[in-house]
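## Example record

The block below lists the input lines for one assembly entry, exactly as stored, with component labels intact.
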Amino acid sequence: MSTTESKNLYGILAEFKNPKALVDASAKVVEAGYDKFDTYTPFPVHGIDKAMNLPKSKLGYIVFGHALLGFSGAIAMMYFMSVIDYQINISGKPFFNAPAWVPITFELTVLLSAFGAVFGMFFLNGLPKLSNPLFEVERFKKATDDGFFVCIEAKDSKFQADLVRQLFEEAGATHIEEVYEQ
Amino acid sequence: MSKYEYIPEPALVKGNHDFASITKLVTDVNLRPTPKNWYLAMLPANALLGLLLVSIGYLIWEGTGIWGLNNPVGWGWAIINFVWWVGIGHAGTLISAILFLFRQDWRTAINRFAEAMTIFAVMCAGVFPAIHVGRIWVIYWVFPVPNQMAMWPNFNSPLLWDVFAVSTYFTVSLLFWYVGLVPDLATLRDKATDKIRKVAYGLFALGWTGSSRAWWNYEKAYMILAGLATPLVLSVHTIVSFDFAVSMIPGWHTTIFPPYFVAGAIFSGFAMVLTLMIVARKIYGMKDIMTDDHMEKMNIIIMVTGSMVGFAYMMEFFIAWYSGVEYEKAIFMLRATGPYAWAYWIMMFCNVISPQVFWFKKLRRSVGFTFFISIVVNIGMWFERFVITVTSLSTDYLPSSWDYYSPTAWDVLTYVGTFGLFFTMFLLFLRFLPMIAIAEVKLVMPQGDPHNYDDETQEYHLHVEEVPQPKAVKA
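Predicted structure tokens for the full assembly:
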């Protein structure tokens, strides 16, 4: 342990045997008053949001903003191009031909919303982030396979290594280890 | 025991699998050394892709005169193939988005696969409008970018709507597919043992950890994308049908086109998914995940959409007669009895009659038979587009301008070549990306649901729904 002691502690990682044990454990972590913690699972687990007391995702607002941008941008573009900049008389139709603009307005609204949904999600999740102290833990590879983990981070105001360990042990963790910053 | 019995849904994953064995089953395909047969399959696919490039090269060199287009028939195989390929793509979005919104958990086995098919089918479709313009070097005129004429595109034209619809569709499908892939790429990153794979999968996984806080936003994003893709997929084939329906050609100018095109698209797309799935699950040993129950459900969708298409054919005929418009009546009589009657009856047989066999449970569950019908359906749907495009144009208003249309060898070679593009992409996908959405399959396994664990011991204990017996009714 002499080499690891010189590094900064990132947090304590505990593995649980199944999704149910993880949900119960995260409820206990919340109850104990920790808030700088996260759980890691190979798939989204039902009910873990309630157990972890997660706030509602802000993604909807981001997507709505993008939808408005796509909608108004499409109309503004077509209005500028066919009414202001270069009018073309096509079979005597009005230059501002609202019904004919519906399809393109719709498509661009969807396109911008989809950009908002995907990139907004990555933004909220802090991705891309290719380096992560957890990736140095060999066992953590199971988090994308069949492992269910909780990690309480050292920057949590209540963090005390022995108390965290004790909490995990009581919650029935199958494996507990320290994670260090690189 | 009453005669009504509660029949639980069949298990989505067969065999005695846990999470780790699912991961191994799917990722092994990507992580093991390339099998020799993969190269053997790549050979014809690449040969056809080469053929496509040659056909396109010659087309650009010589012009659209190499195709069989003539005076009344200015739209030939290019638009037929375009509509056919786009239509095939629609099944992928239906499976990934619409079935998601309807909480059809069985979609998880096939959604990755079907979405990949969508993307490659839309690529094949996109080839045709791009190359048919004649002067391909000014193809950017279809986009609203400044050009030397200082003119902008005509926003009243359905063909321009199509540009926006298809490019939006391709982009959104690609994003949706990628979002689904990220957690599975992280799985591959963690399973890979060699440096190249670790770095390559690691880069595209963006550092995904499987954090629940991330999953929370992820699930929201997935739902929003599904909600966006659902109207999008309906709009795309609607707008494709506007290419026809907004014109004044008899047989095209009808309001039934959008729903009828969308039903036909789903119909042919499911058939294509089945064709590919039946072969791939056999070769890659995925029968535990892509089960016969999935095949049966998809066959039911084929039967339903096939019946909708059949209903649309009859309704078109009825409305042509009911409208009292001479040209409209004439074109439908000519379709069934005129110079292209052979194509019309192939279409009728393949699209209306053949899917009706799936009323029989035995045939719905027969692998060989399903494979056969899935190919028949796609032949039928190609002929549907042929009948719509060619009959209406070749025998339009003035009999003096009527002419018979036949494709040239270049038409055929270009079409066959797109299969090269499709299969090349598909083989690359099978080799390098997980063909099954690993995380999503785990989610729908009974072990993935915390409710299936005992509250006290936290041991796995399948929760069984109590179904009350119906009470005997007094006479």
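Chain A is about 50% helix and 15% strand. Chain A touches chain B through 70 residues (CB under 8 Å).
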